[in-house]
Each structure stands twice: as structure tokens, then as C-alpha cells.
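Hi everyone,

Forwarding the result from last night's run.
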Amino acid sequence: MVGRWDDSPWGPFTDVMVAAADGTRVLLAPSEQVASYVGATYTFDRVELGPVQATGEGRWAVRGPGLVLDLEVGGRLPLGRLLRLVPRRVATAPAWSALTDPIARTMLRGVRTRGSAGQGRQEFYGATDLHRVVAAGGSWRETDLGALAPVWPEPGFGFGSTPSRPSVTRLVTTIHRPG
């Protein structure tokens, strides 16, 4: 799972959550600050720090410690067209995410739009677009990633999962802290 954070408390950054073939969950993070925050929010067996970048729009080049990934973003999916109809201010509001969570769970196995971010925090995903990934290739630790395929089993990083169909979701993440 590639996170391209255009806006965050630490400025723009990219992180990658890797579910290795042996079940190991690895976070690739560009800084200790990002690793600490993301690591407190999701579950990982290991965290690796180093340069992590995702460049391009229609074709992404993702690079990180031990990772080479190139992917091609295809057309907007039907659900993406529906998401685009919702005004952004509504779509990214935590109340909307709470309302749409049961629908997301029904339509997209494993996907949640709200849940626990750990340490008493609540996390909300406000999706605004969804595109298919039509091609991907690369390597993890010099082992070929193989052909593009559905994501299965769910990687188990947090309260929800990625859609099983490889895709790019544009979303806003909101985390409410206790108190």
C-alpha cells in the first residue's frame, strides 16, 4: 500500500506498507517522525527508514528501501464516478465517513471508512475518487513481485484493508485524538 501524502503535519511525504509473502508487515518510512506516527496507527512487524518516493501521475514510480515498483493508473471505476458526485467538503467529513462505513464494508470486502487508530484515537477515511491499476511490476528485496493480482489475503495493517482489486484511492485521512 503506497501512501502519497500531499498534506500532513510534516509536509508532503510518501510511505509504503509492504505485506511480504511470508506475512511480515513492513513500513517503509522517510523519517523517524513519520515512522513513529504511522507505526502508532497501524500494525507492523518491522519499520525501515530511508528515502521513499512516489513520482508520476498516470504512471507511478515508487522507490524505497528494498522496493522498486512501477504501476500504471487506469480509468476511473464506477464507484470513483459516484465518489466524485459528493461535494469534497461532505466526502471528507468524519460524519460522512461514519455514515458510509457500513456501505463500504458491504461493497468492498475488508474496506472500512472509520475505526480505531490506536491509543484512543479514531480514524476516518473520506474517499473522493477511485481508479483501477492496470499494470504493475517491480521487486521487493530483489524478488520479482509477479503479475498484478487481487490483494489476498488482507494485509492486516489496521482496522480496515485495501480494496481487493488493485486501485488508487484519493482520500483524506482524519484522526481524532481523545480529549
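The chain has four helices and eleven strands.

Cheers,
N.
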